[in-house]
Amino acid sequence: MYRKAANVLLPILALAASFGPGLAIAETLNNSGSSGHCPTIAPGPVAIYDLDNILPSVVSQDVVAVDAIRNTLAQYPFAIDGKNYDRLDKVFTQNAVVNYSAPIGVLSGLPAIKTIADGLAMFNRTHHSYGTQYIKICSPSSAIAITYYTASHFLTPDLGPTFAPDTQALYAYGQYQDTLAKQNDGTWKVTYRNLVYQGPLIIDQNS
Ligand SMILES: *[C@@H]1O[C@H](CO)[C@@H](O)[C@H](O)[C@H]1NC(C)=O
Ligand SMILES: *[C@@H]1O[C@H](CO)[C@@H](O)[C@H](O)[C@H]1NC(C)=O
Ligand SMILES: *[C@@H]1O[C@H](CO)[C@@H](O)[C@H](O)[C@H]1NC(C)=O
Question: 139 in ligand 1 pocket by Cβ < 6 Å?
Answer without folding.
Answer: no
